[in-house]
Amino acid sequence: MKVGFTLNGKAVAWQGAPITRLAAALRDDLGSTGTKIGCDAGDCGACTVLLDGRQTCACLVAMGQIEGRTIETVEGLANGAAALQASFLAHGAAQCGICTPGMLMAAAELLRRNSKPCRGEVEEALGGVLCRCTGYAKIVDAVMNVAAAPPRAPTTGAAVGARLVRVDGLPKVTGREAFGADAVPADALWIRVVRSPHARARFALGDLAPLRQRLAAVLTAADVPFNGYGIYPDIKDQPVLADGVVRYRGEAVVALVGDRRAVLSIRDEDVPIAWLPETPVMGIAAATADGALLVQADKPGNLLLEGGVRRGKVAEAFAAAAAVTEGVFETAFVEHAYIEPEAGWAVRVGDRLEIHASTQTPYMDRDEVASIMRLRPEAVRIVPTACGGGFGGKLDLSVQPLLALAAWALGRPVAFVYTRPESMAASTKRHPSRIAAKFGCDAAGKLLACEVTASFDTGAYASWGPTVANRVPVHAMGPYHVPNVATWGEAFFTNGPPAGAFRGFGVPQAAIAHEAMMDALADKLGIDRLEFRHLNALRAGDSTATGQTLAHSAGLAQCLDALRPHWRKAHQEVAAFNRSGGAKRRGVGIGCMWYGIGNTSMSNPSRMRIGLSPAGTLTLYSGAVDIGQGSNTILSQIAADALGLPVGRIALVAGDTDLTLDAGKTSASRQTFVSGKAAERAAADLRRQILRLANAGTDAALSLDGAVLAVRDGGEVRTIDLAQAGPLIGDGSFDPPTTPLDADGQGIPYATYAFAAQIATVEVDLELGTVKVLRVVAAHDVGRAINPALVEGQIEGGIAQGLGLALMEEYLPGRTENLHDYLIPTVGDVPEIECILIEDREPLGPSGAKGVGEPGLVPTAPAILGAVQHATGVRATRLPLLPHRLREAIVAAEITP
Amino acid sequence: MAAYHRPRSLGEALTALAAPHVVLAGGTDFYPARVGRAIDEDVLDIGGIAALRGITEDAAGWRLGATTTWSELIEADLPPLFDGLKQAAREVGGRQIQNVGTIAGNLCNASPAADGVPCLLALDAAAEIAGPTARRLPLGDFVTGARQTALQPGELLAAIHVPRPARPARSGFLKLGARRYLVISIAMAAAVVEFERDRVAAARVAVGACSPVARRLPALEAALIGSGRKQLAARVDAAQLAPLSPIDDVRGSAAYRRDAVVVLLRRLLEGLAS
What we know:
heterodimer, A: alpha+beta, Ubiquitin-like (UB roll), Aldehyde Oxidoreductase, domain 3, Aldehyde Oxidoreductase, domain 4, 4 domains, 7-stranded mixed β-sheet, 5-stranded mixed β-sheet, 23 helices, 33 strands, globular, B: alpha+beta, Enolase-like, domain 1, 5-stranded antiparallel β-sheet, 4-stranded antiparallel β-sheet, 9 helices, 14 strands
């Protein structure tokens, strides 16, 4: 069928099946890949376009319906909404950028009707577009203040500390950014995977020959050279394709490869698989029960890993304590819900493989794919595409192994794009936890002892489970000085989805427990909850439970000092509100956190290069992947100041394993601290070379004009002709100093720690059990804010995810595998957020900076749950605190308005 | 290749329906049910049929064409009788969904949590069915179960009729969900109340997401008759919820739903009294 319509002001004639989704036609046939697909079900709004001027999900419109109509996409915005796009850039409203086109279109529709919308009108207009990165704060600001002037470009030497507009921001607001599914070669074959509908089963494959005749390939476990992968070098327990046994619902079984339409038209039931379902082991209790079935035959007791931290004399300390409190807290599987489902494509180039995919960790992908393919690592090139959100979920392999297998075998480009349900079923999750905590303090409120056992459901495969089980015992006492400590972490296999890395590696779950303990002890002694924390806060000079002395940069007390006026004001306001009675009751809560930056007691180096070419191009070669958090910008700012040239001169080559050095993973809040330090050293190395060439002193000022580098030293100017002297390359690396932990968990697990405290004000509907978070004030010790706008973006986004963890998010295999049953916060759910940045310099970090990627999320849930308790008297012990759970607890506690 | 018909007239549509087709209008339920697979069903797209679109009014009441979108309803000039339905329309998905999703589609999809159904039950609406024999059914007889309607092969929901009440009426709708936007209801309540000299002369109240199909609550409706404005909420009693059969699901427990519905009803009626 032929369809004629207007696309961004131009007449278009399209031909194809009329039932084709508009979103697909735009992307696949009309080159408008600025329109993103997040769910194909109208749940996320990423594909929002204007249809006859009204915002519409392009995934829900049939091409047969648009004859004679007008479509506007992000690519057409430059004609009229350039100011809106500029505002998104200026406000830092785009992080990963995957939701940005949809947000822009929704906002453009509003602004045409109403050029000065209020906050409520903006929320109404944007309510149908989900963002997982920003917490919406800067998006709402950008729409409300389109005319605001952009921040000025910093002068030379003043890039660090500036609210520099993200260096990679422009393509995110024009729709030109290429995510995993956006630059697939036109002749690519397509992969579709048949996944297990059972959490635990044996299976036998029938005759696949008929399918193989119709398709380019039908891949099974037998086709995988080394059918096991995993994060740890000694735990390669997850098969690329299941071999007769499946251990979780969503596990890959058969991969169909062929023409896109052909693979999509084959239904799961058309693939001959004889299933023998077995009773799955679900949850920690089932996994640890006597006689429990084993999830992995060689893992007795379903135990992945256990270990702890011991210091002092815990039993004696508890016996001497004036107040002791205990509690058990449980959390659920939580889905990353990045708006970009896993996607990529691969091609074989001679005896090498090139994989273009959305990832957080190119070098690990390279080595893991090489292991699976039994190739040398150098035979694999990973070219990260733009990453539409990761949050830890794109630290594990997803599309890469099957892309590699198919591209290698078939010699043609091959693409693989997960559907939303596939992404949710197949990918890793936050570990469900059961945390039993006991804390005691003396009569003055000084903490004496703590005992915490954190048990985790690590799902079917190890993934990052060991990382969680290792990290949590170190953090489980909270950011406090506790002289007597016994913490324990343990992770058990179940037939749930593999639990992996998710913003915080188990620390958010642990914080829910230790912060409840702080509230309970403070209440017992009649001490203000903030002051109780202030009294016990770890400070520079204190020893941690692992015996590490914190020499510098332990800014929790400063964070609490900054929050104190907000805390008191919030208490007064809440008390005034509650005096009026009624079904709505308000409360204020506080949460504190600490977080070790980088790997736990393991080397995690980063290496950076920066070069000046003979033509005078200044390029930072960074193997760090910017997944939206802003490392491209941060590293550029650090390098610019260390070198002494304007940040605007730096071009960036990022991620490609053929062109950059290994900068490690984008995880553990480490890129600013670790890669930032490497970038600083690389730039300082380049500067040293320049000064040596110019025979200039260390204070000399540099300037670059074409290929001529001028070095002004005092009154004297020397020039270097790069055409002659270039290329000049600076090299820098950094590996944070740590030591292994001994059997009692003693040692130096991290080189530095982030600290933070947040207060939340909530309104609880006592009769319905609903919670509305009204306001969050967040104080974070970041060492030094390299770019305050980006730091705020991390905090605001973390708060939104923490709110989801506390109140609404629960992944249930087979039941919440889409974005309408699995709820993440919308623009209407995230409160007003005020960020306070505390800069207690970390001497090891670049310009004193630490990390902030994960810390934003950690204190939020504890603060909200404390506020709910303040409002109602109910302390949540099972998360998420869905309305029915809170209401049932309110009824049980006989609390009435 | 599967067939795709987009007729311009109802007659053409009914001719096409002589063979089985999946009916497509706003696409907001059609496409989500077909994620990640080729679409191979024969489709009848009724979006191009002018006779199915728009809202008209006569002495007997209003006719809402089947493909009237939620946004068209929100923007239509309608009396306070429709306030509840408009409130529901604003809670259906986000703006994107409201701009293309249709009222009839909401009924034909027949989800237990369909936001439009309790309101239309409270409006005493009827379904106008086109087919080999045109017929009309009270809404309560049209939606027959979870994901089930009374539509027979060859039939199409052509419009929804809302009768003009005997007296000036007010209406309202309350939805309970676990987040602000884009949320499937845990429970919802809709009511239409007709007053005469500040006393309730007639009342129709319905609850959704607490039974396979939204249900009217006749005992509550009877209890409201004769009530003064200020006493409306006090006449709600849990015993009136007998027609409901809530279940435990991922959004809430059955017990919670029973409990919450009482609160929703009281608040809804309180709102109508003011």
